[in-house]
Amino acid sequence: MEPLTLIAGMALLLGVAFYVCYPFFAPQQGPTLSAGQRGQRLQERKEQLYVAIKELEFDQELGKLSADDYQRMRRQLEGEALAVIQQLDQLNGHADPDDLLQQLEREVSARRQAPTTSEAECCPSCRTERRPDDLFCSRCGTRFEPQEN
Amino acid sequence: MVVDIGYFALCLALAAAGYAIVASVLGAQRQHLALVRSGENGLLAVFGLLTMAVFALWYALIVHDFQVLYVAENSNRAMPLFYVISALWGGQSGSLLFWGWILSLYGAAVVLVNRNRYRSLMPYVVASMAITSFFFVVIHLFASDPFQRLSFTPVDGRGLNPLLQHPVMAIHPPLLYLGMVGMAVPFAFAMAALITRQLDNTWLRAARRWMLIPWTFLGAGLLLGGKWAYVELGWGGYWGWDPVENSSLMPWLAGTAFLHSIMIQERRGMLKIWNMVLAILTYGLCIFGTFITRSGIISSVHAFAQSNVGSYFATFLILLLVSSIGLLLIRLKDLKADNRLESFISRETAFLLNNWILIGMLFAVLWGTTFPLISEMFSGEQITVGPPFFNRINVPIGLVLLLLTGAGPLFAWRRTTVASLRKNFPLPVAVGLAAAAAVAALGVRDLYALVSLVLCAFVVATICLEFHLGTRARMRSTGESYGQALYRLSSKSRRRYGGYMVHLAMIMLFVGFTGKAFTVEKEFVLEYGESFQVRNYTFTYEALAHSEDANKTVDAAALTLSQAGEFLSTMIPERHFYKSFEQGTTEVSIYSRLREDIYLILVGYSQGGQSAKFQVYLNPLVNWVWIGGVVFVLGSLWAMWPTARDRRLAELDRRSFQDSADALSASSAGSGAPS
Q1: Is ipTM strictly over 0.90?
Q2: How many domains, in total, are found in chain A?
Q3: Domain of residue A60, residue span
Q4: Which residues in chain B have Cβ-Cβ distances shorter than 8 Å to A37?
Q5: Which of B285, B567, B609, B647 has the highest CB neighbour count under 10 A?
Q6: Distances in Å between the alpha carbon of A67 and those of A32, A56, B299, B522?
Q7: Interface subset of B 194-213, CB within 8 angstroms of A
Q8: pLDDT digits (tens, 9 = 90+) for B113-141
């Protein structure tokens, strides 16, 4: 084997070894692998329930559901969503049971009325998508004007 | 030197893949983030190293290093550069290296996209991808070495198989590999979910997009392969139910079933076990298909030469199925459904039927494909089943699927009322009946063709109705114009409306397939200046020309095509003879129109070309297959494009991860401990 090939091979070996071992020396972001998972899963479940409620409303508008079925299914989904929001609020350290139903209505309504990401839904500074009830941008910290529902 | 480095990179890739497996699993079990990150870097290193190996082989091909056996067998000095490059995947060991590289590309993409997401799943996703990479590198090093050297250096190589020297054929394998290999990712997420017992919809969210991408590539690859067969093989068709074709179709069918059934789990918490089975089945079929293609146990026009890699794939397939099914059985009790089927007239039922039909089709294809093996086991003789078997079973199944494609969207989730059905069905049914009358009036008497065209009209009507009703509903609530509402509706619900576009593509494919029932085929011999008539087309033989280059000789016949006395085109079918392969190929001449193709083959000619024999096919509606392919890709892209909701969920993931990191930093600062 040519010396140059040997040197190139050694360099490759060292490079790969360094890259693979680098995380042991660099500061790592994030504590454990499961931290924040429960909250994340509850958020996902909440999103899924909102999507299900939206689709239910859409099917009802298209005449695929009777009024009775729509009301029954919506009550069931809202009940599940309220339970999830309650769990999330407890996890985040604040619970306001009287406000939960209003919060649910607000969030579903916000998702129904938001088509694609529009000007009103983005931070004017960094274009990160914002939620209707956000007061600050989560990325750059820009303060938002309160949105009317 | 470059080739030696390429080989060394393969050796390092083996070590890196092995390390990635161990580090990821240990890191997850000990909750050691640095170890997990190190495992991820190991998988990224596999990608880097295999990229070096691929570039080393490309270098050897381009500089004509014929001492490398693969280069000598699959290229020569006369080949155009484009085909020299595509020779990387033209032979067994090169295509396996290319396969392994694409797998590592997917592995790297999964790691980079999910740096801050699915953290509890990712170590096992990485381990699963690394296990598959490890297997492929073992094959590269021990069973099919792309860098194997000859003891001498030939002056020139043999060249690429002439049939593969076509632009479409150059693109077809990469697309197929991007499809087949990519199925490893949803499988990896499924295994991670089973191992960690995170069996809610988290893994589904990841698996869905990572299934949609390879599914699209695989579908495009299948159609492109059909296009190549149509223009290159010269038998007038585009699908022969060849074992290698079937081995790519089967995972696509399983993937289609998966993409539909996950919607039921997402919305209703049902079919959890079935979705796991589909994720395993889809990937298992990819490995099985590779095994069929490369082992040579079933003869096929597509198959690579027989080699010993078959036993490696068979072993890997068995281990994969045993371990994944075993894991699934252990977790069965955690996969109970959250809900039951509330009504038979519901979208859930339609999707369930859709799954049964797709899997039924899959098993029919599997049975026909493996029948030679089964018959050999019992009778000692391989009995092949051909297109008549597959068509007899799959045509009626396909028509039922077509019916469901139209009916399904008209149902609601959970329960659809009879009043709703009375309201939404009449128009599409009326369109179907009108189509039936029109098709019958045109003289169509073939039952399957008639039913197919009627159902196509029915499905198009339901799709248009869905778009129209949804747009009108949106107009009422937002006050937007029709165009705005249609665009915003489709953009907001990309999965639903992208799915409808893909359904539209399927209709176009079915229309193209139906045209096969009306194909006309004729053979004729002509002298110079003579004419032959097929229906109202006239073919007049004008001349035969001969030419030659370093690679091949070419004989081209020129015929004038006219219709009812009006000149349409000059058609030039050819025959090529590749000198190094001593193999002839047919280059057909095709005059394409939307309603049909005129497909002309030069079968043979006398000395001097005074007379020549031709074969002509009139292929009605065939171009709808290729148009449907384009719409399929566009619809899939629309469906997989991230929506506002996807971006919102991604932001939630990022915030959750950042909040955890901030909390740890804060508590570490408070306690004085290093973070």
Answers
A1: no
A2: 2
A3: 37-113
A4: 119-120, 656
A5: B285
A6: 48, 11, 60, 62
A7: 200-202, 205
A8: 988 888 889 999 999 999 999 999 999 99
